[in-house]
Prior knowledge:
Elements (H helix, E strand, L loop, with lengths): L6 E7 L2 E3 L3 E4 L2 H13 E7 L11 E4 L6 E4 L5 H9 L3 E4 L1
Amino acid sequence: xxxxxxxxxxxxxxxxxxxxxxxxxxxxxxxxxxxxxxxxxxxxxxxxxxxxxxxxxxxxxxxxxxxxxxxxxxxxxxxxxxxxxxxxxxxxxx
Length: 94
């Protein structure tokens, strides 16, 4: 059923998000569903607090290049934020 949907925006909560390794989760089934949502969405937003940035996890959801916007907290290190911005990802630290 999910392969038949169309989304304007997919907002994903992730366990880890890294510029090189992308967004990831600990659970393969969760990652598979989120991956499908990314593929079906016009825009992808990742919500991840600063403790999850620059980290990897077991099951990859998508490449960083597939993410349009990262929403994180103000504790995110500036060098990490800068790496995401250099990769073309809009970063909102709130």
